[in-house]
Amino acid sequence: MAIPMTDLVAQYAELKPDIDAAIARVLSAGAFILGNEVSTFEEHMASSVGAAHAIGVASGTDALVLALLACGIGEGDEVITTPFSFIATSESIARTGATPIFVDIEPDTLNLDCSRLDAALSARTRAIVPVHLYGQACDMTSIMSFCSRHRLSVVEDCAQAQGATWKGQQVGSFGDCGCFSFFPSKMLGAYGDGGLVTTSSAELAERLRVLRNHGAKRKYYHDTNGFNSRLDSLQAAVLKAKLPHLGEWIEKRRAIAHRYAEAFTGLPNIEVLAERPDAQHVFNYYTIRVNGAAQRRDSLAAHLASQGVSTAVYYPKPLHVQGVYAHLGHGMDDFPNAALASEQVLSLPIYPEMTDEQVGQVVDAVASFNGFKYIGE
């Protein structure tokens, strides 16, 4: 059978009565921008994450931009982040007028390497954006200690990690702000774009609400330049219907991931990424490393496609060598761990609705690949 990276149709089939009722409720009320659906979902999200406030916005990217602006980040500032993430992470920093300062990643988790933070610090450093990549929390103990010493803001990129924890505490509750994406394929996915910012600062929450709504505290009175970045009621209603299932979905993802890890450990040239004991990984993506040049990874992907198994590469080109950052003057080898990861990572299907048969098909397809060894090795 063909196995997709995720199956949103299967998820909808399981939740159809609740989803349809939520959409019908919004249509019957005729209120589509902000309002009760959004405010109640924000309350549920704040409670779920463990933050005092949650502010719904139009996308995960907007969540990052608005959070950074609310923290006072702007022209001339520097913000430390990872070179191994989706472009939204660094793009959001640049959109404030600040400069992204990249720090290499750990080779075993692919998260930000906290041992390298001191070397990236300058007189212009104002914040750090740690990315909880693939669903595993960064070392927030080290990050919060570093930022406390140097009086830096912390804006967590939780787009792939809703429900993940570090030492029992939810991501999105450590920093000044936590930023979430509700892109359909995320842990908690909307039926379109959507995002949210969590914070325990009443002052930041107020700034965020003003920024998302054209810079206005009340209609037609604008004290600052803002954005049209509001989570709409239809998406909030859908997300509110899905949120109670998040814990169960996480457990199902973790069970599949551990079955994969058991099957793949010991296969030639396959490396299972580390799962830190202090972090509960939620596996928004299940990613392996295929050791060697990108050709071996791509050969495995082609083999899996021939077996009906979808794959994806997150990410084939690190941020520091994207054309948009050519002015920063980085070469591929400036961050060697990120560079090597871009040639080796391969993500496999994982979603809560996967059957045992489908998981077995993925395992068998990976194990049957005969291209792990090349002549001359």
| Number of helices, counting only DSSP H or I runs of 4 residues or more | 12
Strands of the widest sheet, in order across it, are: 1-9-8-5-4-2-3
Strand count: 15
Integer-rounded radius of gyration: 21 Å
Fraction in helix:
25-40%
Briefly, what CATH class of the largest domain? Alpha Beta
As a percent range, the share of strand residues is 5-15%
What is the fold named in CATH at topology level of the largest domain?
A: Aspartate Aminotransferase, domain 2
Shape: globular
Number of domains: 2
**Overall residue-averaged pLDDT value:** 96
Q: What would you say the CATH architecture of the largest domain is?
A: 3-Layer(aba) Sandwich
In quaternary terms, these chains amount to single chain
What does the main sheet amount to? 7 strands, mixed
CATH superfamily grouping of the largest domain:
Type I PLP-dependent aspartate aminotransferase-like (Major domain)
Helix and strand run = HHEHEHEHEHEEEEEHEEHHEEEHHEH
Cα(first) to Cα(last) distance is 34 Å
- Spans with pLDDT under 50 lasting ≥5 residues? none
Q: Please state the structural category.
A: alpha/beta
Overview of this structure, please?
The longest helix has 22 residues, at 8-29. Helix 4 links the parallel strand 2 (78-81) and strand 3. The chain has twelve helices and 15 strands. The strands form four sheets. The chain has a seven-stranded mixed beta sheet with strand order 1-9-8-5-4-2-3, sandwiched between helices. A three-stranded antiparallel beta sheet has the order 7-6-13, with no helix packed on it. It is globular and about 65 Å long. The model has no long low-confidence stretch (mean pLDDT 96). Helix 9 (246-264) packs parallel to helix 12. It has two domains: 8-243, Aspartate Aminotransferase, domain 2 (3-Layer(aba) Sandwich), CATH 3.40.640; 246-367, Aspartate Aminotransferase, domain 1. By secondary structure, the chain is α/β, with parallel strands linked by helices.
